[in-house]
Amino acid sequence: MCFWSAGCDPCRMENKYLSEHFNEVPEDLSIVSFSVDKNENAWKKASETDNITWHNVSDKEGTKGRIKTQYQVQAIPTSFLIDKNGKIIKKFKRFDPNGNIIVKLKDIIAEN
Q: Taking the alpha carbons of 54, 58, 63, 66 in that order, is the dihedral positive or negative?
């Protein structure tokens, strides 16, 4: 699960990176983007611009939303690798433009 916002430049870079490299995502891995935007139009426009084709949801409650609070997200982008049982395996803070998040995910999945 990736927490992001339309007004967050690093979030948008991560979205675009994932979009450009989506074919490298393992088949057994589902990406879910969770927007913390209150403005539905801004969220939908950014989603379209970033070419988000995977699961993309929002509670439209903003930065004080229930889901963001439940996951204790302090800053965005923040992403979680969650197993089939709902257990958080790894938390990623910030987007690292020099790191290949997909390779990191594959390595972590192979270890588990």
A: negative
In the chain, the amino acid numbered 23 is N
- pLDDT tens figures, 51-110: 999 999 999 999 889 999 999 999 999 999 998 899 999 999 988 877 678 888 888 888
Reading phi first (left if > 0) and then psi (alpha if -120 to 50, else beta), residue 61 is in alpha
Would you put residue 86 in left (φ > 0), alpha (ψ -120 to 50) or beta? left
Q: Is the pTM of this model over 0.90?
A: no
Amino acid, res. 89: I
pLDDT at position 99 is 67
The values of phi and psi at residue 78, to 5°, are -135, 135
Task: Please provide the DSSP assignment of 27-47 as one string.
Answer: TT---EEEE--S-HHHHHHHH
Please count the residues of the chain.
112
